[in-house]
Protein 1
Amino acid sequence: MARGERIELIQAIQKHRGSRLICCLTSDRQGAPGIIAKDFIPKFFEHLSRFQQPKKIDVFLFTTGGDTLAAFGLMRLVREFTNSVATLVPEKCHSAGTLFVLGSNEVFMGRAATLTPIDPSVNTPLNPQVEVGPGMRQILPVSVESVAGYKALVKDDWGLNDDATGAAFRILADRINPPRFG
């Protein structure tokens, strides 16, 4: 969609809702993911500062997740500018996006929209990496739920004894830097 068409849609939403609208869309394309990150905060501040004492702010949000602390910080920032925040969810609003939504006064979701559990992930240079293309490496986030799920699998489903449980966690530690578990 061309920029002019997007601006017309934003203006129509603002007129209909009596609000100011910020659009926050991240990528869900394979090999080119985009996530909510701390560098969103100054961009949001830049946009919010242009609004002149808005009574209502709407955030159009499409995301597969990201940094939960960044999502929390974004909502706190938006709340510095107004007491009335609505989140408009056209489709995906996962993990950190769900945390953002929980800070809203109102949530409007499209028919195909989904919210997911908040699954904090650790994402640092020490995380495992995969090659997504020739010479292109991508850091994989380590999900709190994934580590807890592995522990439950080893203990409850497989019923491994202490020695075998230790071996299972050594295999995991060979693939994921142990400080990432904390």
Protein 2
Amino acid sequence: MHNKKSVQSSKINQNKAYSHDQSGLLAIHTAVLLFGLSGVIGKSLDLPAVIITFARVFISAIFLLLILISKKEPVRIRSLRNFSPFLAAGLIMAIHWTTFLQSIRTSTVAIGTLTFSTFPLFVTFLEPYFFREKLKAGAVLEALGMLLGVSILVPEFEIGNRMTQGILWGMAGSISYAFLSLINRRLAEKYSGEQISFYEQFIATILLLPSLWLIPFKLSGKDIAGLLILGIVCTGIGQALFITGLKNVRVQTAGIISGLESVYGILFAFLLLGEAPGIREICGGMIILGISTFTTLTSARKKPRIDKKTSSE
């Protein structure tokens, strides 16, 4: 009788774990879908990239603040020592989203999202410096493979070419996100994902505030609606879902799913903007996403399950 109860209890626990994993996967897939949509919305707005970024971080910061208050999590930074990393992260986030949007608006959604996917290339060389870890030969080969993928995307090595400009903006967004992810790794040891995301976006809002007076722009009803969707749905809800999903899904699995952001972005761009990827984007994208997925799968053998304090973008 006792053994029967133990078996039943074990099955119940397994079913609960399975249910949690399934809900976590659904949350992360939905978040990545929303992240993919953000580039398409950003391109459809008749506003400068800096103004779009300001509105995005401003609206999202308010949304995340409400989440922190509703969950009764502390809003204040625990130590002044952490202010510098948060300030750096906020500045880098402002640069990252501005350059990412500029890449998409200069070229195509495919170019912007695929070049962003190369950020593991830069993490490969920056992580050993940040965390005093060894640079491995395999990681260098993976980075070179990603560079090959990017080189295929480039139509011609001329600065005057808009596609080349888009790739350069996209690489700037990729480098900045690599720095941001490494800073987040340090902050995640002391703060929750919601706290990190809120402070990064709040600081980015303050830093970008002068752009409202320095850069001329006009707001239409369409722009306001797009900015609200971008700030609340694609950024605020998207990040909240991603962070929630990480509580029940391995970070490596989440990393693989995140690779679909480019796929979703390209699909949305085709359906909503009529942007069809060319042969260069398809070939270069397959190399970049393939190496990114391989790198994530390889790291899965070495790293433990994520805890609730790990942050996403």
Protein 3
Amino acid sequence: MRASSSPRLDWGYVNPGCVLWWACLPDGRYYIRYEFKFSHADVPTVCEEVIKRTVDAGIQGCIRYTAADPALWSPNGNTGEDMNETFMRGRVPLIKARNDRVNGWQRVREMLRLRDDGSPTIILHPDCRYTIRSMGAAISDKANPEDIDTTMDDHALDTLRYGAMSRPAPTRAKASTKGNTFKAAQSRLQQFQRQMALR
């Protein structure tokens, strides 16, 4: 059995944009294995890179959805093509992320809280350097301590927040009456987790 994966995307052209690939594991944890930071790239170029990285990771069949920056959707009544449509033409269909900053940061804090076994609900691979660095540099906004200071580079953090607010559901193991099928699925999951750790 393979864990489902769901990319999250924050757009930026002059400012950096960011994509994070989440794996939703059966035990309720979320594993962020890959990140893609980009700037001065148009939508077709970003689509090509997202597809390439997804294929290279071998998870193209595991993608459930891609939650993205609400700024990619035009206001109602706009007749021009918005970036959401351009992403769809580039074979990266999006769903609009919920941009509730205060509730979003609260969800992120809850996911970082240690569980009974001493580990957090959300785990970042060490290769996600941009996201890890951004988390370490984040400070509260002076005018609104429930939010972070948006004058800093917060694009990876916005991507993380979009993911936390997208109600990611863990992969469910399918029970079977045929022999050791469930046990075999558990074995495949463990193998997948080991492969992810080695990448």
